[in-house]
Design goal:
CATH architecture: 3-Layer(bba) Sandwich
Number of strands: 18
CATH class: Alpha Beta
Number of domains: 1
Bound molecules: flavin-adenine dinucleotide, ligand 5PR
Structural class: alpha/beta
Strand order of the largest sheet: 5-4-13-14-15-12-16
CATH superfamily: FAD/NAD(P)-binding domain
Length: 378
């Protein structure tokens, strides 16, 4: 038996854990380095669409994930609390989950597949030949090195890959809070409080609350305000401001006010290339995007899967060439998702409702596990 090929991965986020699990399941020996001392997901809720769910199916993670997830009856959009649309999204697979739950699910899948995860291990860089360097001065050699170390990627920066960062005018503070469904129902009995509801106010002031139930007990709420609005972007939140603008959400806003929270300005980063010799970068390291289409983690997970699949098919000598071909085929759909998400963030067009149709759902419908996905339909 030849010894298995070896991969070293920087970062145990959603991208790193996915590529690690996929490679291990395909016979590689895999080691993941996570800078943080603890393995856990920060943040609140997350929406996953077909593209990432197909991958999670293949990793065997879906039953665990869906045991604590929400399938909302509709994706609802409101303006000044008047319903603009209730999209059923027929034929599109999507769920909402908490980030800690998605993380725990991926961590279990990685461990069960034999991935070695080292926490408190900081990566400082990598070389195209397949060396990975650590903050403690040591280094290791691998057949494949993956930079899945987020928007501030040390692997990407050590390779000198050029990067462009664009900031949008809005940003968001996210919370995971108890649902208080009965109290919400009392305030507004006609509302379907199991729906995903995007509450927009543009006039007289730009403020928005995204309400995303993640399971029976928890709801993810995201409070959006322009970067220039000091009161709207303040943490902890200014409860009086938010309840005055969204009185029907008072019970969940009161919960959010008890937490500290962190305001994130929307940003898009574009890199010149995703691979360099035996190194590939994936996830936010390669393509951080605005959250409007809820595809940042989705694209991270689907690109992690296709990278593992293509790298496994390649002979060791061909690997750098195969990685370049992977980028050539897989990158365009992610570029388009980035463009569309940035467009929505910049124009606030989601507030009009009925946005999930046509080209916009291309990523949600993409199947990265279909071997024929790049064949041209005639
Ligand atoms: P990260 O999650 O950043 O993970 C990187 C990991 O690498 C971290 O654990 C970090 O500690 C570690 N690391 C960093 N540097 C080093 C180093 N030098 N050495 C070792 N380890 C290191 N996406 C969706 O699909 N749906 C949504 O609904 C959604 N909502 C969002 C809402 C907001 C407000 C934002 C900002 C983003 C949202 N996203 C969403 C995007 C999603 O969160 C990211 O795209 C996704 O988490 C990226 O995963 P990643 O693994 O690439 O990076
Ligand atoms: N969708 C989701 C989301 O978390 C955000 C947005 C859209 C699921 C904000 O974080 O448009 O900002 C958005």
């Amino acid at each position: 038996m030849p010894s298995p090929r070896h991969a070293e991965i920087s970062g145990a986020g959603f991208a790193g854990l996915t590529v690690a699990t996929a490679l291990a399941q395909k016979g590689w020996s895999v080691r993941v380095h996570e800078r943080s001392a603890e393995l856990r997901a920060e943040g609140a809720g997350i929406v996953l669409w077909g593209n990432s769910l197909q991958v999670l199916d293949r990793l065997g993670a879906t039953p665990d994930l869906e045991s604590r997830a929400m399938h909302s009856p509709a994706y609802e959009t409101r303006m000044n609390n008047v319903i603009r649309s209730q999209e059923k999204l027929e034929g599109i697979r999507w769920i909402s989950v908490t980030r800690p739950h998605l993380y725990a699910t991926l961590l279990t899948a990685a461990r069960e597949s034999g991935v070695e995860i080292i926490s408190g291990s900081e990566v400082t860089g990598a070389t195209p030949e397949g060396r990975i360097d650590f903050a403690d001065g040591t280094s290791a050699e691998a057949d494949l090195v993956v930079g899945a170390d987020g928007v501030g990627s040390a692997v990407r920066d050590s390779l000198g890959i050029p990067l462009k960062r664009e900031r949008s005018r809005d940003g968001i503070t996210r919370f995971l809070v108890p649902r208080h469904k009965a109290e919400l129902q009392q305030l507004e009995p006609d509302t379907e409080w199991d729906n995903y509801i995007d509450f927009w106010n543009i006039e007289p002031r730009v403020l928005r609350v995204l309400y995303v139930p993640c399971n029976d007990e928890e709801v993810y709420i995201a409070l959006m305000a322009p970067v220039s609005d000091a009161q709207g972007s303040k943490v902890p939140i200014d409860l009086a401001l938010w309840t005055e603008n969204f009185p029907h959400l008072t019970p969940v806003l009161e919960e959010a006010a008890k937490l500290h929270g962190r305001y994130y300005g929307y940003q898009t980063t574009r890199v010149d290339h995703w691979t360099e010799g035996r190194v590939a970068i994936i996830g936010d390291a390669a393509h951080a995007m605005c959250p409007a289409l809820a595809q940042g983690a989705g694209c991270s997970i689907h690109n992690a899967w296709t990278l593992a699949t293509e790298a496994t098919k390649a002979s060791n000598d061909q690997l750098p060439e195969v990685l370049r071909e992977w980028e050539r085929l897989e990158r365009p759909i992610t570029d388009r998702a980035q463009d569309r998400s940035q467009y929505y963030a910049d124009t606030r067009q989601m507030a009009q409702g009925n946005q999930f149709a046509g080209d916009v759902v291309e990523t949600a419908l993409y199947n990265p596990t279909d071997p024929h996905r790049h064949e041209v339909n005639v």
